[in-house]
């Protein structure tokens, strides 16, 4: 889970992370803590569980600070906005498009 913290920090976004994964990690962290402190375990295992808790709380903080932007386009080319209202708008060409005369020479 630690590499994910660095990815979130570099992208300044958590839009690529589904809520199912967060739920799974929360449940997994809770169960690990429960068993680490109820059952007699080695001290290093308990310290490892504490480290996992710290990483999980940092992840929750990132989830709170980097809100999901509904305008952001995901890997499938869709965004969270309702496109039915913008059907009448004329599309503008991309900045990298060449003028019509230059396209014929390619």
TrEMBL record:
<keyword id="KW-1133">Transmembrane helix</keyword>
<keyword id="KW-0812">Transmembrane</keyword>
<feature type="compositionally biased region" description="Basic and acidic residues">
    <location>
        <begin position="97"/>
        <end position="106"/>
    </location>
</feature>
<protein>
    <submittedName>
        <fullName>Cleft lip and palate transmembrane protein 1 like protein</fullName>
    </submittedName>
</protein>
<keyword id="KW-0472">Membrane</keyword>
<feature type="region of interest" description="Disordered">
    <location>
        <begin position="77"/>
        <end position="106"/>
    </location>
</feature>
<feature type="compositionally biased region" description="Polar residues">
    <location>
        <begin position="81"/>
        <end position="94"/>
    </location>
</feature>
<dbReference type="InterPro" id="IPR008429">
    <property type="entry name" value="CLPTM1"/>
</dbReference>
<comment type="similarity">
    <text>Belongs to the CLPTM1 family.</text>
</comment>
